[in-house]
Design a protein that fits this description.
Low-confidence stretches: none
Strand content: 15-25%
Pfam family, one: LCM
Strand order of the largest sheet: 3-4-5-2-1-6-7-9-8
Bound molecules: S-adenosylmethionine
CATH topology: Rossmann fold
Catalytic activity: [phosphatase 2A protein]-C-terminal L-leucine + S-adenosyl-L-methionine = [phosphatase 2A protein]-C-terminal L-leucine methyl ester + S-adenosyl-L-homocysteine
Number of strands: 9
Enzyme class: transferase
Mean pLDDT: 93
GO biological process, one term: methylation
GO molecular function, one term: protein C-terminal leucine carboxyl O-methyltransferase activity
Radius of gyration: 19 Å
Length: 318
């Protein structure tokens, strides 16, 4: 696939993520009243292990994000890299744990689609308008900027544009800032993701990075996962067959981060509140437990911290 086709295929991955999340949330794995405005259909049935996998992914990331908001008492910023059609902003608003400002970054085409949905659906636009104090709300084409929420179109491989746009929309490098990427770094090369996280470490002295992605791809199961993505002509520049939990950590340790943790999703799943895990395991019968284990062993959460302000954010974990 040429690079345009490959980027186009990568962009379509945000639909997959949202369709799977919509399906799982419609089954009761967790509540997300906003996904319906971004993806109309719940799509075809997804296997129970897929739904449990998404449950672990969503709850795992939420756990770390919410802990960061708590530690910083919401006196912080959040930057969701490759956010796609993610709905976290609206959840934080509903739960009254909004950071000072919430930023999202994605390709221009995805950003334009997201803004179109927001513009045309009052349940999405209302919280933005309500949390905005002046008449300067920017909501057009490829740009959305309000007091609390900003959507930026930029390519994560082009750091100077990313930096310019974050500055233009008033990111404050001195405020504690959480960066997150959920199934995103796998689409850029290891060099590009290293540059990205190094730039963040150099620029934001008090910050945390949460990365969720594939890991341990060097076996038969990993091979099948890669083949499935390749069949869709995705440019998997970041899939590194040797990527282990250690190499996930190394990406951050070699670029100026102070403390780094990485857990596979099997471990994360076993550390989530077990009462809720028991509840979701009753939702759908899962015959082959091994299938879920294999799936969970091939994804991980890695989180890294820099704590200049000594807020204790390096103690955040499961
Ligand atoms: N993070 C969202 C989630 O978990 O629901 C979306 C995940 S989707 C699999 C990957 C997202 O990363 C897509 O929205 C895609 O457009 C974005 N992305 C991939 N490479 C990118 C790049 N170089 N610059 C900006 N966005 C990128």
């Amino acid at each position: 696939a040429d690079s345009d086709t490959a980027d186009e295929a990568v962009r379509s991955t945000c639909d997959d993520a949202s369709i799977c999340k919509r399906f799982a949330s419609s089954k009761g794995y967790w509540t997300d009243p906003y996904l319906q405005y971004f993806v109309r259909q719940t799509g075809e049935r997804k296997a129970p292990e897929i739904n449990r996998g998404y449950y672990g992914r969503v709850k795992g990331v939420y756990h770390l994000l919410d802990a960061f908001l708590k530690k910083t008492q919401c006196d912080c910023q959040v930057v969701n890299l490759g956010a796609g059609l993610d709905t976290t902003f609206w959840r934080l608003k509903d739960e009254n744990i909004m950071p000072k400002k919430y930023f999202e970054v994605d390709f221009p085409m995805i950003v334009a689609r997201k803004i179109h949905h927001i513009k045309t659906k009052p349940p999405l636009s209302k919280p933005l308008i309500e949390s905005h104090s002046t008449d300067s709300l920017l909501l057009e084409g490829h740009n959305l900027d309000s007091d609390k929420f900003c959507v930026i179109s930029a390519d994560l491989r082009d750091l100077s544009t990313l930096e310019d746009k974050l500055k233009k929309f008033h990111i404050n490098p001195e405020l504690p800032t959480l960066f997150m990427s959920e199934c995103v770094l796998v689409y850029i090369t290891p060099e590009q993701s290293s540059k990205l996280v190094r730039w963040i470490a150099d620029t934001f002295p008090t910050s945390m990075f949460i990365n969720y992605e594939q890991v341990n791809m060097d076996d038969r199961f990993g091979q099948i996962m890669i083949e499935n993505l390749q069949r869709r002509q995705c440019n998997l520049a970041g899939v590194d067959l040797c990527q282990s939990l250690d190499s996930q950590k190394e990406r951050f340790l070699s670029t100026g981060w102070e403390s780094v943790n990485a857990l596979d999703m099997m471990t994360v799943y076993s550390m989530l509140p077990q009462e809720d895990v028991a509840r979701i395991e009753r939702l759908e019968f899962l015959d082959e437990k091994e299938l879920l284990q294999q799936l969970l062993q091939h994804y991980c959460i890695c989180w890294a911290v820099r704590d200049k302000l000594n807020l204790g954010i390096s103690r955040i974990g499961f």
